[in-house]
Amino acid sequence: MQLWVGLGNPGPQYAMHRHNVGFMAVDAIAETYGFTPEKKQFQGWTREGRIGSEKVILLKPGTFMNESGRSVRAAMDFYKLTPEDVTLFHDELDLVPMKVKVKRGGGTAGHNGLRSTDKHLGPDFRRVRIGIGHPGHKDRVHGYVLGNYAKNELDPLADMLGAIAAEANWLAAGDDVRFMNDVAMRLQD
Prior knowledge:
This protein is an alpha/beta fold. It is 37% helix and 22% strand.
């Protein structure tokens, strides 16, 4: 069993924020693979399903970004999982918009959701880093990540989320390189 966590902030006012692209990714995966309806649990919302032969629990913490790790830890403990079974989908300032990279472990790069998860799990979980780009100056970061995607970004965003969902079977199988390559190929068309 795997636990896939989308990071974001709960509430309709945050729905289209760049910081919520993790929520958007797990929602796209749930719709593509016909996961169960959302259920309130672990201080968040879960959906269950299968991707290939793997059982996957999708989690959207309802704790706000800064406390995401509490929700992730509660789900991980309930299912008796290890950090190696956990995948986080999150926004990444240091990647160009709509670029997707996967890595295991590493630092938190100032990301409060990663920092909270690292505090509760340690650093050894897998991260699907979804590029949002950098606004250019550190003083503009807060408003940028908590701002909505621009109108001209909506089609590329939908394409990227569709590619992540379509290729999620490679993530479930543990083939991170194939996942990244196939997502990149879909986004070149």
